[in-house]
Amino acid sequence: MLTRFSDYLVPLLLAGAALYALYRRVDVFSALTTGAGEGLSVIVRILPPLVALLTAVYMLRASGALELLTHALTPVLTILGIPPETVGLLLIRPVSGSGALAVGSEIMQTYGPDSTVGRTAAVMLGSTETTFYTIAVYYGAAGIRRTRHTIPAALAADITGFLAAAWTVRWMF
Predict the structure, then answer these.
(1) Phi, psi at residue 83, to the nearest 5°?
(2) What would the pLDDT profile of 62-85 be if each residue is shown by its tens digit?
(3) Cα maximum dimension of the chain
């Protein structure tokens, strides 16, 4: 049976790294445990903002505020060409990846994956980022406290991604 080079790529990279470490006389186990210790300290720093973020998402859904925002934004989204059925995804995606997947799954079950709404939701999930989660994790790990221009720029990129997703699905399908 013929095999592809890609089947051997990861084992070759690992073997190459091990050989390079031997050549450089690096204590690989010590480097591994040091890296693991640093990883644990990063987790301790990012855990509080992460817990607060996830709590806020669940509170938003449980309070009914998400449904209220959906009704308020429907006319604007219709004018922009974004299916109003995806408004829950628009609001949750910048905050929570798992929440966005749950909303996207719900959209797929309700409208079907081959519908315009389902396709738009799928492209939105793939073309946008969980902005606040990413900022909380990376800025928390780096010890940065002020986000200044990061949040407006990231939210502008998310809005652009949502618009491009809706327009691309309309254009392609």
Answers:
(1) -60, 125
(2) 898 878 888 898 899 999 999 988
(3) 65
Q: Helix, strand, or coil here: 129?
A: coil
Q: How many residues does the chain have?
A: 173
Distance of CA 88 to the CA centre of its chain: 15
The helix/strand/coil state of 2 is: coil
Give the DSSP letter of residue 115: S
CA dist., res. 98 & res. 58, Å (int): 11
C-alpha distances out from residue 13 to 10, 16, 36, 117, Å: 5, 5, 20, 42
Sign of CA dihedral 77, 82, 83, 89: negative
C-alpha angle 112/123/99, rounded to 5°? 75
pTM over 0.70: no
- What CA–CA distance (Å, rounded) separates 128 from 155? 10
In the structure encoding, which two tokens stand for residue 142, read together?
């780096």
Please enumerate in sequence order all residues whose Cβ is within 8 A of that of 78, keeping only pairs 6 or more positions apart, or say none: 84
Q: Which are the contacts of 130, defined by CB distance < 8 A and separation ≥ 6?
A: 93, 94, 95, 96, 97, 100
